[in-house]
Amino acid sequence: MHLGVIGTGIVGVCTAAWLQRDGHRVTFVDPLAPGEACSFGNAGSLSPSACLPVGMPGLWKQVPMWLADPLSPLTVRWAYLPRVLPWLLQFLRHSSRDEVVRIAGAMRTLLAPIFDSYGPIVQRAGAGHLVRRTGCLYVYSSRQAAARWAWGMDLRRRLGVELREVGEDELLALEPDLKGRFRFGLLAPDNGSTPDPSALVKALHGQCVRDGATQLRERVTGFEFSGRSGRSGGNGQMVRALRLANGEALEVDGVVVAAGAWSAPLARQLGVRVPLETQRGYHVTVQSSNLGLRHTVMAIEDNLMVNPMAMGLRLAGSVEFAGLAAPPAHARADVLLHKGRQLFPHLDTSRTTRWMGHRPCLPDSLPVIGAAPGAVNAWLAFGHGHVGMCGGASTGRELAALIAGRAPQVDLHPFRPDRWGGRWLDAWRDHGADPWRDRWRDRWRDHWRGRFSTRGPG
Question: Where in the sequence is the domain holding 3, given as residue range(s)?
Answer without folding.
Answer: 1-57+95-133+192-276+362-421
